[in-house]
Amino acid sequence: MSLINVLNEDIKKAMKAKDKPTLAVLRMLKSAIQNEQINKGQPLTADEELTVLAREMKQRKDSLESFTQAGRDDLVEQVKAEIVVVETYMPKQLTETELSTILSEVIQQVGATSMKDFGKVMGAAMPKVKGKADGNQVQSLVKQLLKTT
User: Fold this and answer.
1) Which residue, of 16, 65, 69, 146, is most buried by count of CB atoms within 10 Å of its CB?
2) What is the pLDDT of residue 1?
């Protein structure tokens, strides 16, 4: 079942339950996916849907950080609730240990020996962990692993 169909079903459930905050987030996700389909001109693959979800998650995490710094506790709670809803559609996130193992393998595969190879490692690593790990977390772990090699 495509993500759009899953979202449609969950939108119906949220409407019946009169869960307005969840309903708003689900509608935003559906809209983002439909906009991407329109831009592409054809239905999205599962990987492309995941890219849209990851982008939506990143936007919310950035907003959370901004609102926290600005002391907007009312908006912080709202964004945290949105993040919880978006997470239900994301694949299970990798633990730091799992991510570290994958990145170590990638470093060996590309033959990285120093920070000069950072771009090569990131280029090879991101497709493997797409949607399963935050890009900032991947970046900091790659830097840490390259410093120790």
Assistant:
1) 146
2) 64
Residue carrying structure tokens 């990987």? 47
For the chain, the farthest-separated pair of C-alpha atoms sits apart, in whole angstroms, at 56
Q: Which two tokens stand for residue 88?
A: 């239900």
Render pLDDT for 8-29 as a digit per residue (tens, 0 to 9). 999 999 999 999 999 999 999 9
**Contact status, residue 120 vs residue 110, Cβ threshold 8 Å:** yes
What is the per-residue pLDDT for 105? Answer: 87
Q: What angle do CA 133, 134, 140 make, to 5 degrees?
A: 105
pTM for the whole thing? Answer: 0.75
Give me the CATH code for the 3-87 domain, please. Answer: 1.10.1510.10
Rounded to an integer, the average pLDDT of 31-39 is: 93
Rounded CA-CA distance 129/54 in Å is 11
